[in-house]
Amino acid sequence: MTLMSGGQAAVEALKAEKVSHVFGLIGSATMEMFDALYDAKDINFIGVHDERTGTHMADGFARASGQAGVVLAGQNGPGATNLVTGLSQAKAAFSPVVSIAGMLAQGHIYRDAFQEVDQQSLFTPVTKKTWTAPSADRVPELMREAFRTALSPRRGPVHLNLPRDVLAAQAEFEQMQSPDGYRVHRAPAGHPEDIAAAAALLANADRPVIIAGGGIKNTLGHAQALALAEALNCPIVTSPGHGDAIPFAHPLNAGQMGPRGNAVASRLVKEADVILALGTRLGFNSTFYSYDNINKDAKIIHVELEPTAIGRFFPVEIGIWGDAPQIAAQIQAALNQTMSRSAMDMWAIGFQAERQKFLDTRDAEAIETHPTQPSGLFKALRQVIPHDAAVTMDAGTLCLQATDALNYHTPRSLFTPLDFGLVGFSFAAGLGVKCAQPNRPVISLMGDGGFGMTLSELSTAVDHGINTVTVVMNNGCWGAEKAYQRDFFNARYIGADIGSPPFDVVAETYGAAGFRAEKLSDVAPAIEAALACGKPAVVDVAVDPNALYSFRRDSFKHRGG
Fold first, then answer.
1. Are 471 and 427 in contact (CB under 8 A)?
2. In a domain, 187, yes or no
3. 190, 228, 243, 433: which could join 320 in a potential S-S bond, CB 3.0 to 4.6 Å?
4. How many domains does one find in the chain?
C-alpha cells in the first residue's frame, strides 16, 4: 500500500494505462495532478491554448494510434465547458477520447461558487459515460472504468470530473492494475448460420457491392475485406470520410460512395442487387437516409459491431453482429468456389473501366488557371502529397470536395469531422495525429475561416516541435453559406465574407515556417518546401472566391430550389 493524493493516483492510473501523451491546459483546480505529471517522465504533456483544440488533438491521436487519446482541462467551469465541442465531435466519430476536468470542491456544490457549473449534467449527453469521483480512493477505479468504456465497442469519448478536494485528499492505494487484467481484447465473430446465408446470397448475386466503413478502417481490416472482394471479383466502395479504408490503387476500389462521393462508386450502390455493408451504419453522410442513394431493391447484408445499428435506417436481408474483418474472412471461407461468375465478372469489368475513365477525366478536366480553382488545386495536391502521408480535413465545401478528390494509399490516413461537420477541427487534429505517428508526414487542409479559429495552436506546434503542414485554402469567405446565399437567397450576402491576415506571415511570427501560393504553379513547390523545412508550416493558398458549390441542395427543397 502506498499513501498518495488523489492527483498522484490519477497520474499513476495514466501510467498503468501506458498513456504516452496528455493534451491539456493548466488550471488551478488540478494542481495536484499537474504536479504529479511533472515527475511522470514517460508521459509527454502537450500544453495547448484552448481546451477545445486540445480535445481535437486527443481525438486525432486516438484515431491514428488506435489507443485512447487523453485531454485534461485543468480548470473547472470555463475550462470544462470548452471541452464540449471537441467531445461532441469525438462522439460523432466514435473516437476513444478520455477527457478529465477539474471540478470545484464538493462542499461548494450548489452554492453558486466561483466557476460553478453542473459538469456531470453538462457532459452526459456528449459522451458514452460521465463520472464524478466522490473520494480520492475511488480515483483509480474510475480511471480504469473510463479507459475501459472509451475503448470497448462501440468506442467513443468519456469524461471524468475530479473535484479539488478529491485531488488533494490522501489515501492508501494498492499497486495500479494493468489493463490486461480487465480490458476486452477480442470482438465477436459472426454466427455460422448467418455466415452461410450471407455467402450464399453473395455467391448468387449478379451485381454485388461491398461497402467498407469505419469498422474496416479503424481495425485496419482492409486485407480481409479485399480478400473477400477478390474472391467475388466484386467492387468495393468506402463510406464518406473513410476513403482510406481501402488502399487507393487496388483495382477493385471504386472510392467513396454516397451523395458526397464520386459518380462511379455512387452508381454501383444505386444499381447493386446485393450490398454487403461491412462496419458502416449506412448513416447520414452515406445515404442521407434516402433510397436516392442506395438501391431500394437490393438485398442488404449488414455487418456491425454495434447491434443497434443493424437495419436501423434500411431493412436488411441478413444482419450479422460482430467484428467486420473477422466476418469478411468467415464469409470468404464459406463461399462456394463453383459459383457462376459470368454476370458478376462483367459487373466488375464494367466498373473498372468506368473507374479508370473517371480518374483520367478528373485529371484532364482539372481547371489550371488563375485564380486557382479547386479542381486544379486538388490535382496539384494529388501529385505532391507523399503516399504515406496522413491527411486531416475540416468541414466546409472545399474540404468536402477534397475528401474524394485526393488519393489515400495507406489505410487510416484520412481524418475528417465526419457527421459532426465541425469547422476548426483539422489543424488541431493533425497535431494529435503527428504525436501518434511522429515519423509520418501530416498534411491538414482547412479553409481560412476554420484556420482563423484555431491558429493560436501554432504556438503549441512550435513549442513542442510538432511539424505538420497546414494548407489554408483561402477564398475570403465562409464558402458553404455564401454558396447557399447565392443559389437560394438571391445573392443577399450577409456575414459570408471574412478578412484574414496573411497566414504565412502569421506562421513566421509564431516561429513556424510560412509559404504563400498566389497562383496554382506555386502550390507544389510551396508544399514540398513546407514538408522539408523541419518546422510546423503553413501554406496560404489563394483560391478563387467565386468557385463556390452548394453541397446540400436537398436542404433547400422547401424553397423550390
1. no
2. no
3. 190
4. 3
374 shares its domain with 519: yes
In angstroms, rounded to a whole number, what is the distance separating the alpha carbons of residues 186 and 242? 23
Q: Is 152 a domain residue?
A: yes
The residue type found at 205 is A
Distance CA 34, CA 43 (A): 11
- List of residues 6+ apart from 357 with CB closer than 8 A: none
| DSSP states of 298-317 | PEEEEEESSGGGTTSSS--S
How does pLDDT run along the chain (561 residues), one tens digit per residue?
A: 899 999 999 999 999 999 999 999 999 999 999 999 999 999 999 999 999 999 999 999 999 999 999 999 999 999 999 999 999 999 999 999 999 999 998 888 888 888 889 999 999 999 999 999 999 999 999 999 999 999 998 999 999 999 999 999 999 998 888 887 777 667 899 999 999 999 999 999 999 999 999 999 999 999 999 999 999 999 999 999 999 999 999 999 999 999 888 999 999 999 999 999 999 999 988 998 999 999 999 999 999 999 999 999 999 999 999 999 999 999 999 997 656 677 888 899 999 999 999 999 999 999 999 999 999 999 999 999 999 999 999 998 888 888 889 999 999 999 999 989 899 999 999 999 999 999 999 999 999 999 999 999 999 999 999 999 999 999 999 998 999 999 999 999 999 999 999 999 999 999 999 999 999 999 999 999 999 999 999 999 999 999 887 776 666 776 654
Residue 561 in domain? no
**172: its cell numbers:** 492508501
Radius of gyration of the chain (CA): 24
Range of the domain at 386: 366-555
Nearest residue to 269 via CA among 197, 321, 347: 347
**Residue 340's domain is classified under what CATH number?**
3.40.50.1220
∠ CA 127-130-132, nearest 5°, is 160
Helix axes 324-334, 222-232, angle to 10 degrees: 30
Contact 86/146 with Cβ under 8 angstroms?
no
Q: Are residues 284 and 371 in the same domain?
A: no
- Extract the runs of DSSP E, i.e. beta strands, from 181-322: 208-212, 236-238, 253-256, 274-278, 299-304, 318-321
Q: Does the residue 126 lie in any domain?
A: yes
Q: Which of 357, 376, 410 is the last residue of a domain?
A: 357
**Which residues lie closer than 8 Å to 430 by C-beta, 6 or more apart?**
60, 390, 392, 415, 442, 443, 444, 468, 470
> 129, 160, 181: which is the final residue of a domain?
181
Q: Provide the pairing of β-strand 2-5 with 170-173.
A: antiparallel
As a whole number of angstroms, the distance between CA 420 and CA 400 comes to: 13
Q: Tell me the CA distances in angstroms from 69 to 22, 436, 561, one per residue in order.
A: 7, 9, 43
